[in-house]
Amino acid sequence: MSADPRGIGMTSQRARDRLVDQIRQMGIGSEQVLNLIRTTPRHLFVDEALASRAYENNALPIGFGQTISQPYIVAAMTQALLCGDRLEKVLEIGAGCGYQSVILSKVAKTVYSVERIGALASKLRVRLHELRVNNVRVRHGDGAQGWAKHAPFDAILVAAAAIDIPAALTEQLAVGGSLVIPVGRRGSQELMLVTKTFNGLEEEVLESVSFVPMVDGIG
Question: Domain extents for the chain?
């Protein structure tokens, strides 16, 4: 992993600006989110051999059968959770390499990230330390169970597709909070925005997506 967040060549600011222009044209309207994509060094979250592809609008492998999400999807999920105010507590399920974690760290006071694969969780802790990101807490655990100790959360972001929305996650969501989660089997997944109200849950389909499946337990 390159230690230089500025990047050169295909990881330079020019490459990031092109990516931002592309996802803006795809419908991301939040300047706050676009700036987060522009300024977060995605090339530091992939293997050095893939660094030249870091600012393509594509998912890339990070090992263990997992991927770093497409930048457009990261932007769309982040945009869906933001409602203007700085979030106090955000729960992230499926932290992976930590790219989404770091973006969330810029809009939340504290991010609680759960990753079921132990090796990825360990690498994430090291990466966060190297990047001097101090407001993300990492837990090796079963994402479907959330992190009840720190609930309720103002927002929950899930980066793996569930067949059904896990009840544990909606229970840990604060009233007025939002959960963004891909739901469905491979080939027919939809990105859902779930808002918790005093009267129950309101669900909205945002778009069709393709995510790795949510797996029970830890690895």
Answer: 9-209
Query: Which strand (E) or helix (H) includes residue 109?
Result: strand 108-115
pLDDT confidence of 7, banded at 50, 70, 90?
A: low
Share of the chain above pLDDT 90, in %: 86
83: left (phi over 0), alpha (psi -120 to 50) or beta: alpha
**Host H or E run for residue 91:** strand 87-93
Element (H, E) at 189: strand 189-197
* Residue among 12, 52, 69, 105 flagged as catalytic: 69
Please indicate whether residue 69 is annotated as part of the active site.
yes
The string over 140-160, giving b where at least 16 C-beta atoms fall within 10 Å of a residue's C-beta and e elsewhere, is: bbbbbebbeeebbbbbbbbbb
- Those residues with Cβ within 8 angstroms of residue 163's Cβ, 6 or more apart along the chain or in another chain: 183, 184, 185, 214
Sequence length of the chain is 219
9-209, CATH topology level = Rossmann fold (3.40.50)
Q: Is 189 exposed, middle or buried (0-12, 13-18, 19+ CB in 10 A)?
A: buried
Comparing CA positions, the residue from 11, 189, 176, 181 lying closest to residue 80 is 181
Rounded to whole angstroms, the Cα distance separating 59 from 61 reads: 7
pLDDT band at residue 1 under the 50/70/90 scheme: very low
User: Number of C-alpha atoms within 13 angstroms, CB side, residue 39?
Assistant: 11
SS3 content of the chain, % helix, strand, coil (to 5): 35, 30, 35
Residues sharing a CB contact under 8 Å with residue 209, sequence separation 6 or more, in sequence order: 73, 161, 182, 189, 190, 191
